[in-house]
Amino acid sequence: MVPSLVSEETDVNALSPPPIGLPPSREVARPLALPLGGDLALGRAGIACAAAAGLQALGGVVVLGWALDSALMTRLVPGLPPMAPSTAIAFILAGVALCAQTHAGGRRATAWLLDGAALGLMAIGGVAFAGYLLGRDAGLDRMLFGLAGAPGGPFIPARMAPATAANFWLLGAAIGLRGRALAHPLVDALVVLAATVSLVTLLSYGYVVAGSDLLYWLDPVALPTALGFLLLAVGLLATHPPGCKLMQVSLGDGVGGRAFRRLAPSVMLVPALIGWGRTYTYEGGVLAGHHGVALTAALTTLLLITIVWWTSAQLDEVDEVRRERDAELVKRDAELRGVRAVLDTVFARAAEAIAVLDSSHRILGFNAAFVAAVERFIGPTPVIGASLVDLAAAAPETLKYAVPSLERALAGESFLVVRHLTDLSGEAAVIELTYGPTVDPDGTIIGTVQIIRDVTERVRAEEALQRLNAELERRVEERTASLTAATREMETFTYSVSHDLRQPLRALDGFSQALLEDYAPALDATGKDYLARLRAAAQKMGALIDALLVLSRATRTEMDIQRLDLSAMGAELVAEHRRIDPERQVAVRIAPDLAANGDPRLVRALLQNLIANAWKYTSHRPDAHIELGATVRDGERWFFVRDDGAGFDMAYVDKLFKPFQRLHGADEFTGLGIGLATVQRIVARHGGAVRAEGVPGQGATFWFTLPAPEPQGDPS
Amino acid sequence: MTTNQAPLLLVEDNDDDVLLTRRALEKGRILNELVVARDGVEAIERLHAPGAPTFGLVLLDLKLPRLDGFEVLERIRREPRTRLLPVVILTSSKEEEDIVRGYALGTNSYVRKPVDFDQFVEAVRQLGLYWLVLNEAPPTTHFRTTP
């Protein structure tokens, strides 16, 4: 059976949680700070460019020097051998090649230029070298500047030195070989060899003060030439494409590169200085022979070991930092594992069916509830890697809405959809589907998550609740209607009572009186007494009916709540009693400003009943006291009417507020037993409470509460 | 001071009350002729019939068969002949609603019949004294319709 889509209601954008992804890490991993300095300000290209410019400048100056016949410009230090013109031109050529290499890597024209420069350098070197081997000067320089070898010297001036020629050959080969596969170590070797030759020359010039004959072994390499070769070697190494181990290490960002740049100057400088020192002492005869050599060796060892020690210490520091960071990473990894384990448990145990999908709707993960849901509504068991679209294809109706929903989630939307379905067993169900995108730590959407919740029970409960509410409302309406009817009946009844019950009483009383008046001679004393009792009973019943009417009015009249001045009301009522009963001596004390909210007629009736009671039950005392006041008890304001009259026994306090219940005999105090019942009803209608306290023979206090009035001065 | 000798109209359906009222009037020395109407319709007939006498006072009960007291009062006030006729509602009811309605319809007084006959006598005596002796009745010409 294929599940059918009974109805569909979509609650678009009902919710919009943040896209699902990894929680942000507690802190951004801080970069590893190494105590080793030596950041490379210039890049490789910068170094190469500087070297190329230096070479061209050097070559240019020397050529100009020959043209102007300036010893300074061709020799740098007058008295030393000059750079040959052909050497200068070769340097300019090398500078151009270096520049071309830097600016356009790998273009065809560049390749040709490089090859041409390589061949040119090798040719110049080769011609000069051949001249030495053959014992004949090729005359290249003289051809250029028309220079003749100055007679009287051991060597032909301005002729390219054999070492120079060899160096050009080496460097030309290096330029020619560069860019050709598998030649990197060879290129490095050639360049380093050439650099070594020029270094030897430079050092020799440095030591020449102390006297050295190495320089005179062959035609010497000129000082500017040696400098030029160093520039060229550095430039070539700098432009060497990745793969040149030497430059990779020396210019690298790693600890090795930094260490190299720290160490290289000292390692290069220390032997040179020690060599110079040794030469000086040798020349001066201070430490000649074996002692000098031993001292030199020891000094070199000492300095180098110091440098090595210092570097090692620095490396240890780096290592320490790295170890701390590793430990921190391990700790964080463990924490993440813990979080992951908790999340896995939550995922697995969730009552909601959850599936995580990639961007092409393939299932990356799901929980047990998802398996149950798919089996219940679609049929097949889901597997990791399967496409959810393929899975849903078993139920075409499901497929119809699944793909658009997943696409919406992939577009970044988070939303909730409620669907009414029938499962494979034919049972109706309501499910709530939540779709949302999943993101990688950069916030890029990498897939979706789908959460399915069975809300059938909840929806049913809601529907049941709605039905119940409707039923309840209907019942309330019915009750209200019947109550209204009852009230109307009650009113009619009361009206009849007031009219119809009183009429027979009037007849009873009236005709009894008529008998007494008109037939007095026919009656003896007992007969007259009976008639008098008849009249008294009729009148009492009239009073009872009136009291009942007051009581019922206290219950049924509509209330008009307003702010009342109980003090003034009490004073009026007391004044009325004094007027009716002028011979009584009653000391009345009324607290000022007793205010409350209530219906004026009902509250007046309430006070009237209490004051009348107090008046009545103090009638046996020649000096009675009545007090109307208020106190606060348990945070509530209680009004009270207190008297020092007959009081009552607290044992009967429960009967006090019931209609027609009396605690005193009619012979002692007249009354109907309806006043306090009326008081109680009036207070109850105002939402208040009433209490009574009494001691027989000492007095009674009646307490009641009423709604507090709004604060005075309120404009509304 | 002269006593108004015009007859009184008592609108009352209860025989006991008629008897007691008559007795109370006698005891109060109100000797005017007493005409009794047993229901509202009869009261209107007595008042508005051609050649009907001009009454000095109407004592009107509220609970009456056929037309009740309020309707009778309404018709009395609507009819030009009886528009100014003094009417006293004499009833058992003390309902505020009835009192207000009675005055709204133009009653001159509203008196509740006490159960105590002595008080009733006193009330009727005072009514007679006031309306028939103390009070100046409207001129009788105003009662008549122009022929």
Textual characterization of the structure:
- The complex is a heterodimer of chains A (716) and B (147).
- Chain A is elongated and about 195 Å long.
- Chain A is an alpha+beta fold and 716 residues long.
- Chain A has helices at 44-68, 71-75, 85-103, 108-134, 140-145, 162-177, 184-207, 223-239, 245-251, 255-284, 289-349, 368-377, 388-392, 396-410, 456-518, 525-556, 566-580, 600-617, 675-685, and strands spanning 5-11, 20-21, 353-358, 363-366, 415-422, 428-439, 445-454, 562-565, 586-590, 595-598, 624-633, 636-643, 690-695, 699-704.
- Chain A has 19 helices and 14 strands.
- In chain A, a hairpin with a 4-residue loop joins strand 3 and strand 4 (363-366).
- Chain A starts with a strand and ends in a 12-residue tail after the last strand.
- In chain A, helix 6 runs parallel beside helix 8 (223-239).
- Residues 1-41, 148-156 and 209-214 of chain A have low confidence and may be disordered.
- Chain B is of the alpha/beta class and 147 residues long.
- In chain B, 40% of the residues lie in helices and 14% in strands.
- Chain B contains 5 helices and 5 strands; from the N terminus they run βαβαβαβαβα.
- Chain B has a 5-stranded parallel β-sheet, sandwiched between helices.
- The radius of gyration of chain B is 14 Å and the shape is globular.
- The model of chain B has no long low-confidence stretch (mean pLDDT 85).
- The interface between A and B is medium-sized, with 24 and 20 residues.
